[in-house]
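Human:
Take a look at this sequence-structure pair and walk me through the tokens.
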Amino acid sequence: MKNIFFYLYINNKKYKLWYNNYVGKERSADMKKLKIHPSIFYIITIIYLEILTKIIMTKQLLNTGLIYMIIFTIPIVLLLTILTKSFNKTVNRVISIILMLFITFFFGMQFVYYILFSVPFSFSSIGMADQALDFVSIIKDTLIDYWQYILAIIAPFIIFIVFQKKIDYSRYNRYNVISLIIMFITTYLSTFLCLIPNEGDSKKLYYNVDNPIAIIDKFGMMTYSKIDVKRQLFGFDAELVLNTNFPVINNNDGEKEPEEIVYGDNALDIDFNSLQSNNKDIQKLNAYMATETPTKQHQYTGMFEGKNLIFILAEGFNETAVDETRTPTLYKMINNGFVFNNFYSPVHLSTTGGEFQATTGLVPTQSTLNIWKKETPTIAYGLGNAFGNIGYDVQSYHNWTYKYYKRNITMETLGFKDYTGCGNGLEKLMSCKWLPSDIDLINVTTPDYLGQEGNFVTYYVSVSGHSPYNSSSNIARKYLDQIEGDYSTPVKYYLASQMELDRMLEQLIANLEASGQLEDTVIALVGDHYPYTLTTEEMNEMSDYEKDGIVEVNKSNFIIWNSEMEEPIIVDKLGSQIDVLPTLLNLFGIEYDSRLIVGKDILSDTGCVAIFSNYSWVSDYGTYFANKRQFVPKAGKTLENQDEYVKAMNNRVSNAYSISKMILDTDYYTYVLESEW
């Protein structure tokens, strides 16, 4: 036995020696000749960039969306492989480099766009490409500030170029190409099979829901872009679930005292069940509106009837900017008018989304704003139309490019036929160099309407508080030495920029007082969004409580102030930007049908809901985080039927998007209110 083992040992050593001397050398040579298939680069690059994008935009990774993203990526990789294996080596190499460069640019562009506007790029925005030059300096600053992310995005392309000599660009024969095509078709069709049995949010997101962040979270950026292109070209059928009114939940500590006054409804005499139409979406809207309960009027209804209104959409305004010393005018107005202690300005599609919410009471979506840029829909309850239809003189101003966000169209759609910005008259009165002064805007425009006969509504879109919050902001530099406290540099510049807004309001009040119209004028102000170019950590530097980066970071103020208000009116009830318009309409005693507006009068007894871009929401009963599928009840609130409540509220939120889209798609206001005009 010993001899056998000795023999095997000796021969094993001989074998190893032979293998190392001959076979090993041959294998090493073969390894050097080994070529990498280009599809390896495609799949690794795309999945890597998809994961990076998912983390940045959704703050999520380990959920079912990761699986869906990989499944939907496979046919894309196969298609790219077909394109780079069907020609000779030279052509295949060129095509491959172009494709990798495009993939890198696409994800890089999406990242920069998201940082600037807090929303992924939609192909509906291509029409504004001519205005990109307005943001060259901001884009440059973004690239510098986020260079680590930019490097992470371009890293796969750099590696790809380094390994060029190792990539196999040889041409596939006809049968291999056909096999790839069959695999592509099979895998592509399989992605739809994944949706057939799914009655949950995956199927809704793919076919019926226009929520970019949620779609990216579920399917990835490339699939979102495919869906976006398809919807821009062909539209889509929005889902609408009936009978989803807010659940009636008895959550009172004691019995509610009976009301001494019975108030009427904010509703017109419309019998939705009797309305006829061949349009499917109009039929859906009629059926839905018939189930809606109108809001009630209340003790403040008509409080400002007959007064003037100056409405300001303030760039980047947030509750964190308000300080008794730095911003005394803002502080006074917030604490001496209507005091809204539970108000949100959710980011939807940057400034234009905030504007859309506040002036229409509808929820903005990518498809909504695509229509929003057209002249066809009639926004009957748009801010200008609502007041103009009862005899008010209406005008609007913007101290930047008057065509930006197509405001030359949208202002008229809102009812502001008299609209002035930089490029159609304002540049003759003040400097329109970036960043323009909000104080100058007030001083050159108030003579247009102060002292004139009749009532007026004036709408301002301010600019001075815009990012970037660094030394390039000429507005912030004016006040920087007045910012005290241990703040980071971006925070200091943000706080300084908001001091311009305060001085603008101070000047506006002075001009109103000089004209003798202060008492007869109501000033309303809401931010377009929080300063989302600041990180959550930077936002918390200014806050007296820790804000999360999805919901609480959007908490803000809503100003409704008149000098004749002797005591502040405290409002603890929840409200958000979509509730601004119906709240103002009721305060000014303007007749309207509350069922036709998604937002609700904050001062009414109807529950409001703050809706966020990823389908998270806040109600008077708690907060739902859509990314976590988690509902957190409000302190002191208990829900016996919490699951049913959350389901009903999710339907309500989904409906809000669908209704807003369908109203504009069908020009529903013209259809349903024609007899009222």
The chain has three domains: 1-30, 38-234, 272-676. The first helix runs from residue 2 to 33.
